[in-house]
Amino acid sequence: MAAAPLYCVCRQSYDVSRFMIECDICNDWFHGSCVQVEEHHAVDIDVYHCPKCDVQHGPSLMKKRNNWHRHDYTEPDDGSRPVQAGTSVFVRELQNRTFPSADEIMVQMQGHQVTQKYLEKQGFRYPITVPKLDGLGLKLPPSSFSVRDVEEYVGGDKIVDVIDVARQADSKMKLREFVKYYYKPYRPKVLNVISLEFSDTKMAELVVVPDIAQKMSWVENYWPDDSFFPKPFVQKYCLMGVKDSYTDFHIDFGGTSVWYHVLWGEKIFYLIKPTQANLALYEAWSSSPNQSEVFFGDKVDKCYKCVVPQGTTVLIPTGWIHAVLTSQDCMAFGGNFLHNLNIGMQLRCYEMERRLKTPDLFKFPYFEAICWYVAKNLLETLKELREDNCQPPAYLSEGVKALITALKNWLKREVTEPASEVPDHIRPNRLIKELTKEIRYLEVSKPMKSQGSGGCPLTRSTLDRASHHARRTARRLRHHHHHHHAPKTPSNLEILELHTRQVLKRLEVGPFEEDAPFSSTVTAKFNKASVASAAAVERSLDNNLRLVMCHVKKLNEVVPLLAGLCREHPTSLTTEEEAVEGMLSMAGLLYPQRPEESSTAQEPWWSSPSSGSNSSEAWGDQSPSRAASSPLCLDPSPGTDYQYCETTLSPPLHPSKRSAPNTPPISNQATKGKRPKKGMATTKQRLGKILKLSRNNHFLMASEDAAFCYLVFITSLGDCLVLV
């Protein structure tokens, strides 16, 4: 291989990360740092002479300034071209304009009032200003902290992004070079540093972000320590701007909210509300070729002016369009954070960035990845609230809906743009499906307790960490206990399953195939049994429920078999045998013993409430072991639905620790997407309830139908036959 060409006085190969300039005499390339030419200076050079050539040809020739209102100051000043943003003429005109006061929209608060509880209740839709530091939980260096101090804590070799304000152009330079520029008695240019993130430096120890930003932050709440993607650091920025620095209208990346504190100096914000109309105008303006020549504040109904003096903190919500003018030399600290209150707007801003083809440098790092993490955690939150019979706040349910739509779109996009940010341990399709199920449950369920009433906990981000983890740990322990102490002795229902398989074989029902997906409709002819595809997907979970459904028309051929099985085992009744006898009794083929026939016989648990054994009073008389083995009571009265009575001795597992979802054994296209009539339980709902209540118990329920019945075998925690 040929050796890589060498450049510059240092004779090194090309390095894409280092700025270089070409000599117009010898045509060799030189590192700016080797020949003392800053990147932002290079644009002012018309003809460059390297150190060797300028001995013979003289110094480099500089461009001649012809105007003060254009980014390219060499353009002729003939009055034909409009003023561009950031130029000295633009800044002077901006300072002379009048705007409606931001007092109309700003919410002024004391630090201790800015709490998550307040924002969850009132919403976070308008900017908040806090005149004093007290109560925010924000810790900063003293107001005497200087630009030189920043260099000392961060390091002079740190490469920083610097904006040449008059050209609205970005360049890079070492921090020490910016410090030298800052302290010059005469500054030939207006340079602005707004993106120095210092979380990885010694200066990070001097700053503690506001409590509200820490507690609400998606990154702090949901980003896992073992993530494959690097953790985004966007919470600690130092902004150093000289007088007349200007940042044109923008929305903070990913629709993040921002906290902003002026340590010394002054900033002026120009704020525009993110209405649908304004966002549409903003997108059109951002993509227009003459963007820099149009002041966006003139395109909207109202652009508010907000002066932020020294010592003041502002919080700007999701999506607010704003420009910033530095009216005097200024140092400020700020940070960005995503949160649950405005999920829909955050996603909208992100999608707008994609349409505008915003460079990755100016986007929230791994925005899609964190959305997947958030979706996983919010699913858990929704399940917890449902278990507690609590209605989630509107901002959360609406946010999850927006999140579902975005996640679906991102999955579709991956087909053509395979730059996936789906974390490895997340099953995207299953996650979307379960989130959708939770939202549908909210839409069809009866009114529940609202947040904050009757002891309802707030959303996960507001739960006390210790109690939240204690709750999850307790559920995990219950889950572990149930799995390791389940009875291992074979049950009569295992024999029942074997016999039933033989009968089904005689009925020409094909073999059970665990991996066959369910058909969308149930047909009269079965050549092979079906298995829920969702159940197959769940096979890798801790507890593996396998659902096999068969359509049996000849009920009379199966039921005698069951009766014969019970007669073959005339021992004392176990719960399983009681269940079998109960089914036969309801089928009219077997009747419970009369009290006079056996004075010691217990009333079986399937008896109707009128018998007194399973009434609400009778439940209280049961011993713990008896109650634990009878998780529900059935009322098989003609024309009525089963009545479910849960005990409190076996609390349901934590949603994230459940063995399998309550997946229906069949997907019926005729009912897909339709809601059941009020007060009527669907087969899916009944089966879901049965599965939930039967996690640690064996039971059997039956209801005869003249035409057919469904046999559902559940084989994992102990065999169980359900006829619905």
Question: Oligomeric state of the chains?
Answer: single chain
Given as residue ranges, the uncertain stretches (5+ residues, pLDDT < 50) are 459-466, 478-489, 508-572, 586-724
- What is the molecular shape? globular
**Strand residue percentage:** 5-15%
For the record, give the distance between the C-alpha atoms at the N and C termini, rounded to a whole number.
75 Å
Mean pLDDT: 74
Number of strands: 19
The helix content is: 25-40%
Number of contiguous helices: 21
Instruction: Give the C-alpha Rg.
Output: 35 Å
Main beta sheet: strand number and arrangement? Answer: 11 strands, mixed
The SS-based structural class is alpha+beta
Cofactor: Fe(2+)
Protein name: Lysine (K)-specific demethylase 7Ab
Region (Disordered): 447-491, 594-632, 644-683
Main location: nucleus
Describe, in plain words, how this protein is organized in 3D.
This protein has 724 residues and is an alpha+beta fold. Helices cover 31% and strands 15% of the residues. It has helices spanning 39-42, 53-57, 88-96, 116-122, 147-154, 175-182, 211-216, 218-222, 276-286, 343-355, 367-387, 394-413, 428-444, 465-484, 492-506, 533-537, 555-568, 575-586, 616-621, 624-628, 683-693, and strands spanning 20-22, 29-31, 45-47, 61-62, 107-108, 128-130, 159-164, 169-174, 191-197, 237-241, 246-250, 257-272, 304-308, 313-316, 321-337, 530-531, 547-552, 709-714, 720-723. The strands form four sheets. Strands 5, 6, 7, 8, 9, 10, 11, 12, 13, 14 and 15 form an eleven-stranded mixed beta sheet that branches. A four-stranded antiparallel beta sheet has the order 16-17-18-19. The chain has a two-stranded antiparallel sheet with strand order 1-2. Helix 11 (367-387) packs across helix 12, helix 12 packs antiparallel against helix 13 and helix 17 (555-568) runs antiparallel to helix 18. It is globular and about 105 Å long. The model is unreliable at 459-466, 478-489, 508-572 and 586-724 (pLDDT under 50).
